[in-house]
Amino acid sequence: QKEVEQNSGPLSVPEGAIASLNCTYSDRVSQSFFWYRQYSGKSPELIMSIYSNGDKEDGRFTAQLNKASQYVSLLIRDSQPSDSATYLCAVNNNAGNMLTFGGGTRLMVKP
Amino acid sequence: DTEVTQTPKHLVMGMTNKKSLKCEQHMGHRAMYWYKQKAKKPPELMFVYSYEKLSINESVPSRFSPECPNSSLLNLHLHALQPEDSALYLCASSQPTGTGVFTGANVLTFGAGSRLTVL
What we know:
The complex is a heterodimer of chains A (111) and B (119). Chain A is mainly β and 111 residues long. Chain A is built from no helices and 11 strands. In chain A, the strands form 2 sheets. In chain A, strands 2, 4, 5, 9, 10 and 11 form a 6-stranded mixed sheet that branches. In chain B, the strands form 2 sheets. In chain B, strands 2, 4, 5, 6, 9, 10 and 11 form a 7-stranded mixed sheet that branches. Chain B is an all-beta fold and 119 residues long. In chain B, strand 4 (31-37) and strand 5 form a beta hairpin. The chains are: A mainly beta (111), B mainly beta (119). The interface between A and B is medium-sized, with 25 and 31 residues.
C-alpha cells in the first residue's frame, strides 16, 4: 500500500481557472507536508509547506491540510500555462530526515 | 540558479565502468541526500547523511557507494551498474532534524540532477 497517494492525471484546466490537486497519506503521525513542482527533465522545486490544520496561502497558491482525514491539497488560482508541470506531494513520516513522495499529478493549463 | 550543484549533468557509462556523481552545497546544511527518479515516477530515497555520517541506507545495492568527504560534498560512486539503473539522480540538502520532523527551517533543497544512462 502506497504511503502517499495522488491522482496521476493529467489534470487539464483552462487558463485563469482554479486547479485543485489532492493528496492522501497513510501515516497518522506525519507532521510536515510539502508541495513540490517539477517541470519535465528538471529537479523538484518547493512551492508550499504546511504543518497545521487549515489553509495556508502564498500568492496564487493555497495549501489545505486536514490531519483527521489524512488529506492535503493544493489550490492554484488564476492558473497560467507556466504552471503546467508535475506536482509532487511529500510527507515527513517521522522516520528521521525522510520525505516520502506521492506519485505526482501532472497539471496541464491550456491557453 | 540552484544552490545545490550536481555534476555531471549527463553521464553515459557501460556496465563495466566506474564513475562518480558529485554534489556540492554551500548553504551550511548538515544533512545531504541521494534520490533516484525514474521517468514519470516520484523520487525514491537512496541514502541520507547527517553530520557527514550515513544515517539511512534504503537497501540500495552495493554497486552504488555513497561518500560524504565533508559537510559540503556528497559523492555517489557507481560500479558495475545495470541498464535498469538509468535514471535521474537527485542530490538534496537540508538542516538535520533532531526530531526527524522537517519544519520551515530545514526543508529539502534539490540540485538540478545528474541524468545517468547505463548501456
